[in-house]
Amino acid sequence: MTAISMRTIRRRATGDKRASFWVYGLLIAFLIGSVFPFFWSFLVASRDSSMLTERVPPLLPGGNFLSNAVRVFDSVPFWRALGNSIVVSGAVTLTTVLFSTLAGFAFAKLRFRGRNGLFLFVVATLAVPTQLGIIPLYMAMAEFGWAGELQAVIVPNLVTAIGVFWMRQYTAQVVPYELIEAARVDGCSMIRVYWHVVLPAVRPAAAFLGMFTFMTSWNDFLWPLVVLNAENPTVQIALERLQSGYYIDYSLVLAGTTLATIPILIVFVVLGRQIVAGIMQGAVKG
Amino acid sequence: MTTVTRRAPHQGVAPAPPRPPKLTWRQRLSNMDVKWSPYVYIAPFFVVFGVVGLFPLLYTSYLSLFDRDLLDLDGTYIGLGNYTELLRDSQFWNALVNTLSIFVLSTGPQIVVAVGLAALLNTRLRAPTGWRVGVLLPYVVSLVAVGIIFANLFGPNYGLVNGILELLGFDRVDWQSNRFFSHLAIATMVNWRWTGYNALIVLAAMKAIPKEIHEAALIDGASAVRRFFSVTLPLLRPTLIFVVITSTIGGLQIFTEPKLFDAMPGSNNGGSSNQFQTITLYMYQTGFETQRLGYASAVAWVLFLLIIVIAVINFLLTRRLASTGVEDDR
């Protein structure tokens, strides 16, 4: 034991030794596995379907991507789908962040009767698979005349339990009581305390919640499939439509898939760090 | 702001722990804002959850007691008729087995790999964030895109996977029509998308383990492998439970992947002989294709119970499994 200095112990104990060749090798293999399906779909999208019949498929993109992309816009109302997805995800993100930060503030910093019980209820609802209620939900939407309309996709997702839970945990940590008291002494109403004190303080978590909500909403499939129709789809529904022909033209379908994936990939490249940090923080706290 | 002689009372604001609350009745009365604001702030969640979450679920159980379809829009009360029919419905049992099979094939390997990947990411890497972002990449892609891409990769005739298998001297596999292989292919999609995400959650938990514990084990002469199994793994328990439970809730409701994997696009059959039809897909089919709303509700409700039962079993199992190796198990 005497041979090892405390510093070496610390290093070894915390996995602080430099990553070896094997670690990098495995990680690179993993990354290739992660990226390859995207690359493949772009490859097929940039050629024509005949490439799939070749014994050894070419590994360089061809020049047909634009023409395939144009065919996507001819086959399904893709612009409309993009617009719809932006409207739906944008609206859902705004309301989720607003309502979650408000509720998080109330649960973390305000005192009211039933607070703990109600919060426990929120946590319990995290485990409820609400997706299984789609049949009555569809009947209700049909009753309202909302079937096929965007509000049918927006309203059920106005606020989520996970959002309220996250914001409550974060607000409890970062907003000191003294700050709220000071604002109260200065005569702020509750809503102004929220707006001028709480909201600026929780901005990082709110931003993460926003990104997360936007992505979830953008990728949502089952409920939009039930309640929307082919004339007024979201991006995911349009993609599914593309694939629904009797004969699948994969250059066309994967061009659509690539088109639909590019925006979210750009967002991910720009905000990837924050998304990673958010997931890891949420994991420790949750 | 001249002299403020007395500290303002904590008007409805829960006080910092050491100071006792001093709320007088008059101040409450004078400030309805303080009293009612919290309820207003939390109301949206409860209203939304009540209307689009809880009510539909409860109504599903009510609906499941009726025989209700296109010919009988008001529905006929048949008591537990749908449930007894369900017990005799071979397609339902088939879907149940498929769901469990895909679930086991995805959740099991996924968590093992995620823990391994987290261990890799927990070493001292150059550009650690870059690797983390890379590992998370599949998570941001929509399930529909994943389903389409993998349906192509696993295509029976011209799929790349079969091409590679053939190149390596193996036989082609009919990933669509063979029941087991179709489950394997669908589980691959699930694993591809979720492993990195779960690895990050496990990594966060690994980072949170106090260094002193590892140091103590090392001084006691524990090898790296021993420390992983006797220190790291037990301390990851709460996180692993969390990951397993969320995977259970999500995995048992799997829908998009099998729907898009079908060689007959747009079909809800889950393969020509339902070989990969899951329960949610079956629910969707009975509810929105054949429009037997009462029966579909019974399917939904049974799946709901199944999720709860399996989540509880998993909870107990994970607790047991991850606790072996530590003596002072509280």
From TrEMBL, chain A:
Residues 82-271 form the ABC transmembrane type-1 domain. Keywords: Cell membrane, Membrane, Transmembrane, Transmembrane helix, Transport. It is found in: Cell membrane. The chain crosses the membrane at residues 21-43, 86-106, 118-138, 150-167, 193-215, 250-271. One of its GO terms (cellular component) is plasma membrane. It is a multi-pass membrane protein. InterPro entries: MetI-like, MetI-like_sf. The keyword Protease does not apply. Coiled coil: none annotated. This is Cellobiose transport system permease protein. It comes from Actinophytocola algeriensis.
From TrEMBL, chain B:
Gene3D superfamilies: MetI-like. The chain crosses the membrane at residues 36-59, 95-121, 133-154, 180-205, 235-255, 293-317. It is found in: Cell membrane. Keywords: Cell membrane, Membrane, Transmembrane, Transmembrane helix, Transport. It comes from the Bacteria. Residues 96-314 form the ABC transmembrane type-1 domain. PROSITE patterns: ABC_TM1. Pfam families: BPD_transp_1. GO terms for cellular component: plasma membrane. GO terms for biological process: transmembrane transport. It is a multi-pass membrane protein. The keyword Cell membrane applies. Belongs to the binding-protein-dependent transport system permease family. This is Cellobiose transport system permease protein.
